[in-house]
């Protein structure tokens, strides 16, 4: 996992000092980062920032939480997540805690340009969230 550049309005890799992408990482690396942060091995401040996220359209959609008011436990769940999108990508990483049990997840879907499987992708991502919810009891 690596941060390669700063956030830019326009990313033109032909210009000196501009990376072709903001960052690189794998789902495995993101889950490891979430786990280590949750366990206190890494600073917890980023989890406080992530708790303010409002996009619950993907995996987190299965938890039935209020997108604008879930920084505190609700329905017995505490969610911290971050989503990312691009024209051909949907990603959702997070930590879900219930009854003292926590699951870290990273779900990433990608497809070829020109295809539009978003409805199916979002449905499958919510199904994964449902499986996480069921696992937590």
Question: Which key features would you list for this structure?
Answer:
137 residues, 3 helices, Serine hydrolase, alpha+beta, Beta-lactamase, three-stranded antiparallel β-sheet, single chain, globular, Beta-lactam/transpept-like
Structure explained in plain terms:
The protein is of the alpha+beta class and 137 residues long. It has one domain (2-8, 20-136): Beta-lactamase, CATH 3.40.710. Helix content is 27%, strand content 24%. The protein has three helices and five strands. It has helices spanning 27-38, 45-50, 118-136, and strands spanning 2-3, 23-24, 78-86, 89-98, 101-110. A three-stranded antiparallel sheet has the order 3-4-5, with helices on both faces. The longest helix is centred in the last third of the chain and has 19 residues, at 118-136. The chain is globular and about 50 Å long. The protein starts with a strand and ends with a helix. The mean pLDDT is 93. This is Serine hydrolase. It comes from Barrientosiimonas endolithica.
CATH homology-level superfamily: DD-peptidase/beta-lactamase superfamily
**Radius of gyration (Å):** 16 Å
Q: Give the CA-CA distance, first to last residue.
A: 32 Å
Q: What's the helix count?
A: 3
SS class: alpha+beta
Q: How much of the polypeptide forms β-strand, as a percent range? A: 15-25%
Oligomeric state, counting identical vs distinct chains:
single chain
Q: Segments where pLDDT lies below 50 for 5+ residues?
A: none
CATH first level: Alpha Beta
Count structural domains.
1
CATH topology (level 3) name? Beta-lactamase
Order of helices and strands: EEHHEEEH
State the helical fraction: 25-40%
The total count of strands amounts to 5
Order of strands in the sheet with most strands: 3-4-5
Level-2 CATH architecture: 3-Layer(aba) Sandwich
Protein name: Serine hydrolase
Organism: Barrientosiimonas endolithica
InterPro entries: Beta-lactam/transpept-like (IPR012338)
Biased composition (Basic and acidic residues): 1-13
